[in-house]
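TOKENISED FOLD:
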Amino acid sequence: MDNETTKFGFTQFAETWNGRLAMLGFPIGLLTELMTGQGILSQIGLM
């Protein structure tokens, strides 16, 4: 099985979805901080 047909590990498929989800996660994290007035570490109880 070549590297492009597998769905696990460092494949183009996995990296593409990782990038897409990161692009969604970053603004969602910023909006959550703005709405709650707390940073992520405060929200999960580490600070």
